Amino acid sequence: MTETATASAPGRAAGRTPLRSWLAVLSLTGATFSITATEMLPVGLLTPMGGALDVSEGSAGLTVTLMGLTAAVAAPTLPLLAGRVDRRVLLAALMAVMAAANLLSALAPSLLVLLLARVAAGVAHGGVWALAASLAVRLVPAARVGRALSAVFAGIGTASVLAVPAGTMLGQLLDWRAAFLGAAALTALVAVALALALPALPAERAVRPRELAGLRRNAPLRTGMLFLALLVVGHFAAYTYVRPFLEQVSGIAPGLIGVLLLGYGAAGIAGNFAAGTTASRTPRRVLLVLGSGMAVTMAALALLGGHALAAIGVLLLWGVFYGGVSVSSQAYVLATAARTREAAGALFAAVFNASIALGALAGGRVADTAPLPAVLWAGAALAATAVVLLALHPAVRSGSGSGSGARCAARSESAGSPGHGDDVA
Predict the structure, then answer these.
(1) What span, in angstroms and rounded, lies between the C-alpha atoms of 291 and 67?
(2) In angstroms, rounded to a whole number, what is the distance separating the alpha carbons of residues 215 and 405?
(3) 302, 241 in Cβ contact below 8 A?
(4) Distance of alpha carbon 127 from alpha carbon 148, whole angstroms
(5) Which of 136, 139, 179 is nearest to 154 (CA)?
(6) Based on the structure, what is the number of domains in the chain?
(7) What is the dihedral of CA 277, 227, 289, 236, to 10 degrees?
(8) pLDDT tens track, the chain, 425 positions
């Protein structure tokens, strides 16, 4: 983290009570939660969506793919285009766009209209995610920056594991359109909360294209982003189609799927907080454990999926491992690119969302042309490849002076940002 950015955090928080500062942080958490929930929502609704719109489950999966691709483009683009626009105004406007997109999704008469709505949602998603972390450090004193970042990114991790079961259960109680109406109401409330809770947040400086381009020279960051891409593509290639797998291969009744995915979500929340306690110190090691666990559980589900009880147990373990990915990968990014956090945050959001889109797309093609267990084998293979890649990259000790990312991490820790351990890169 730059000295300028760190010094500005207390200044921005000056004159605001601790309660007002944390309400502002929580409004950002609400934003990250609701945009991620919107992105994940179709995963548990592919079967009823496909039936209602008269398309295959693979085609319905394009609602995940297209939003992710749009978000991946918007994440690095919007900070460049926004210039010095007040970030409070920008975030509230983006959440209003998200609310409108969810409403249009709920009312969509065809797959084409639904996909157009998801494009609009993707623009809002990419912009919010790219800006959230860099704004959190301006809302609280420097000594509280670590907690603020954890709170903001807890929204992403929690939504990643809760949105699918919640949407599935709402879709079962009412229908899939009701799930999107609920998302529209949530995002509208968050837009209001951002407008009321955030202080004025004028841009400290504009992000320039050369700053984004310069990230390619950061070797540890490049390795981390490739690891993240392979892991997330593998996860979503498999997880996007977990509902039809559980129904058709495991023989689990449709009425129980929502309950099982809720259990998956609860396991993921546990994994999120368990990983968060150690990822700030040893992000690389935590990512290796998480990636290995995901590879093993996806392969195990493919092998044991025909036995319902075994499938349930493996599914819960999968949730634990994936639940820690968001917070751990963000800790790795902060450790390796602390002096360019807004640009690195935009890159992180772009890679993560592009990987979600590519994973859903790849899984759809496999699901439409091969038996359903094949999507799990594909996911396991990609996760294993990611682990090998990161394991072969040598670790860099934070205080050793090797690598700009490690040096920046050390500066960030001394300034009050989340601490990083001896294996950040």
Answers:
(1) 25
(2) 11
(3) no
(4) 19
(5) 136
(6) 1
(7) 90
(8) 333 333 344 445 545 677 888 898 899 999 999 998 898 888 778 778 888 888 877 778 788 878 888 888 888 888 777 777 888 899 999 999 999 999 999 999 988 999 999 999 999 998 888 887 677 777 877 667 667 777 787 787 778 767 777 787 888 788 889 999 999 999 999 999 999 998 887 766 556 666 666 677 788 888 889 999 999 999 989 988 888 888 888 888 887 887 888 788 888 888 877 887 777 778 889 999 999 999 999 999 999 988 989 999 999 999 999 988 887 887 788 778 767 766 777 788 788 878 877 887 788 888 878 888 889 999 999 999 999 999 998 665 443 333 344 344 334 333 334 444 445 65
Structure tokens at 51: 């039936």
pTM here is 0.73
Give the pair of three-digit tokens for residue 203. Answer: 């841009």
Q: Looking at the domain assignment, is residue 422 inside a domain? A: no
CATH of the domain at 186: 1.20.1250.20
At residue 5, what is the residue type? A
Q: Which domain holds residue 213?
A: 3-415
Q: Is residue 172 included in any domain, yes or no?
A: yes
How many other CB atoms sit within 10 Å of the CB of residue 210? 8
Look up tokens 């381009």; give the residue.
213
* Position 143 in a domain: yes
Are the beta carbons of 335 and 420 closer than 8 angstroms?
yes
Considering Cα of 85, then 89, then 91, then 94, what sign does the dihedral take? negative
Let me know: does 200 contact 86? Beta carbons within 8 Å: yes
